[in-house]
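User: Sequence in, structure out. Go.
Assistant: Echoing your sequence, followed by the C-alpha cells.
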Amino acid sequence: MFRVLLSVALAIAAMTLPLAAAEPFPQVKLEEVDAGMPYNVAEVPVTDPQSMKGLKIAIIAAHGFEEVEVTYPLRYFQARGASVEIVTPDWIKDRVMAVQFLKPSVWLPAAKQVSQVKATDYCAYVVPGGAWNPIIMRTDGKVLELLRQANEANKLIASVCHGPQVLLSAGLLKDKEATGVGDIRGDLRNGGVKVIEDQPVVVTENILTSRDPHDLAEFSKGIEAYLKKNLGFCKSKEKANRPKE
C-alpha cells in the first residue's frame, strides 16, 4: 500500500512541477537574410526622352516583388516620357515592399488599388515576379479579373521571371507561346503553354514575357517597341485592331 501511495504522490508532484522553459528559436536578423545574386543590368541609353510620351503604364505588384523587376522598367519608361503607376491589391495601401530574393529592400509608392482601376485606364499592364509577389497575386480574384479585362480591352500584358504564373492563373496563356524563369516552365507547360527557352522576349498577340532579371533591358525595349507600333493602340478596345507582331 505504501508503494502505491508513493507512486500516486510522485505522479501528482510531477504534474504540478513547472515545465522547463523551452529554448526559444533565435530571431532572424535582417542582415542574415539571403539577398540572392546581384542583378547588374546595364541601363539602355536614352536617345529620345519623349519616345514614350502619352503612354500610360500600370505595374501591378504586391509585397515581395523582386526590386529590380519593377525599378528597372519604371526608370526606363519614365526616362522616355511615359506615365507609370504602381497598382496594388486592395489590402495594400500607399506603398508596396520590394525584396532582393528573400530580403526586404525598399518601399515604392503605390498610386492606386486594383478596385480603383478600369482595364481601359492604361496602355499596358506589367506583372513582375519575386519571392512572394506572384503567390499573392495569383490568388487575388480582383487582380486576375483586371488582367482578364485588360486582355479583352486589347491592352499589352507583359510579365517577367515568376510573373507569368499570375498570367497563367488568369487563364491568359493557354495555347500561347511564352517564357519565364526556369523553375516555372514545368507549370507553364502543364497549363498548356508552349514554352520558349532560348529567347529573352516572347510575344504572342498582346502577351509579352521574359525569362528573368537578366532580360530586363530587352523586356523594357520590347514593351516600348510593341506600344509604338501603333500609338492608337492605347485607345483601342477591339482585339481585331491589335498591332501586328
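User: And one key feature?
Assistant: The chain is about 30% helix and 20% strand.
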